[in-house]
Design brief:
This protein is α+β, with helices and mostly antiparallel strands. It is about 20% helix and about 25% strand. Helix 1 runs parallel beside helix 2.
Length: about 200
């Protein structure tokens, strides 16, 4: 008889993207860590972590943030809950040389220097563009035309925009010589952000 492996168990629960909370001890700690890791890295849209009353699993206690929704299952509970989705706005979604065209002592460039990972921004229409704005109302990045087309009609569904990385863009990396000559300074920063938004209604 073939011995059941951890990968077999992981494969089975990943079909439904469910992870059951199990009591952790020295014998199954490696199994439980592996199960959580595989589940989080393979789940395509949602991952359900099921906790059992009276059973302690330290891995289930480390999760926090708006992405996490907790609810107690009741026999008669059919209350609808808001479902959130996430999207990453990376370099291809931004006009990466937006700040480079501004003077080094401009409000935009100064605002970029104090931004950190975890800071919250908002998305606002400025003229014909969509721009990422800090809490003082200063635009710190501009969406590309393609990204603007995608998010223009979804603004009301966005819950939060969080900076996940600050990327340095160097003037020497600009290929267009004419455009390069219009940029100021040797480098500027570009915020990469994660958007959390409510699921769009079904048409």
């Amino acid at each position: 008889m073939k011995k059941k492996s951890m990968s077999d168990d992981c494969h089975n629960f990943l079909k439904k993207c469910l992870l059951f909370d199990i009591e952790v001890n020295k014998r199954n700690v490696i199994y439980s860590i592996g199960a959580v890791h595989v589940g989080m890295s393979r789940a395509r849209e949602t991952l359900h972590l099921l906790k059992i009353d009276g059973v302690t699993n330290p891995h289930a206690e480390v999760f926090s943030g708006k992405f996490l929704q907790e609810r107690r299952l009741l026999p008669s509970g059919n209350k609808e809950r808001t479902s959130y989705r996430y999207a990453l706005l990376g370099m291809e979604d931004l006009f990466i040389d937006y700040a480079g065209r501004r003077l080094e002592n401009s409000a935009i460039r100064r605002a970029l220097t104090v931004l950190n990972c975890g800071d919250v921004l908002s998305l606002a229409g400025r003229g014909d563009h969509l721009e990422l704005v800090n809490n003082e109302g200063v635009s710190v990045a501009r969406l590309s035309k393609k990204a603007k087309h995608i998010w223009d009609s979804r603004l009301e569904f966005i819950e939060e925009i969080t900076i996940v990385a600050m990327i340095r863009r160097y003037r020497d990396d600009v290929d267009d010589e004419k455009f390069k000559n219009r940029c100021h300074g040797d480098m500027w920063e570009v915020p990469v952000v994660e958007l959390s938004y409510r699921s769009l209604p079904t048409p």
